[in-house]
Amino acid sequence: xxxxxxxxxxxxxxxxxxxxxxxxxxxxxxxxxxxxxxxxxxxxxxxxxxxxxxxxxxxxxxxxxxxxxxxxxxxxxxxxxxxxxxxxxxxxxxxxxxxxxxxxxxxxxxxxxxxxxxxxxxxxxxxxxxxxxxxxxxxxxxxxxxxxxxxxx
Length: 153
Description:
By secondary structure, the chain is α+β, with helices and mostly antiparallel strands. The chain has 5 helices and 4 strands.
């Protein structure tokens, strides 16, 4: 059973991940114009009535899907999950040293971890990013753009 979520009317909206995503989408749009990729945002977040949530689930909406899906020129699919806050503590150190997997990220919800683990087990590339530079680094690593292309000013 899916529960509908309601936003308290007296609380202002603070959405740093939304601002980050808009900035990253603008960056990806420039690369899309160069015909290197296309991308989309699966509209999974947001508040829904109980009926809308149930209908979405019946139609295939899944919890934990990453924020952006990138389709590359060579026919590959990549996923980016955005988090406004950078990793911290031991996880950040282990991640930098290559001792952790993306689905171990403590910033991810239980549903996100499960979905990311499923994607990785199927051979898809997934990256958790909190800056445009990290998105660019992922695109270079995935060989969508070259190391000297689409630098951020």
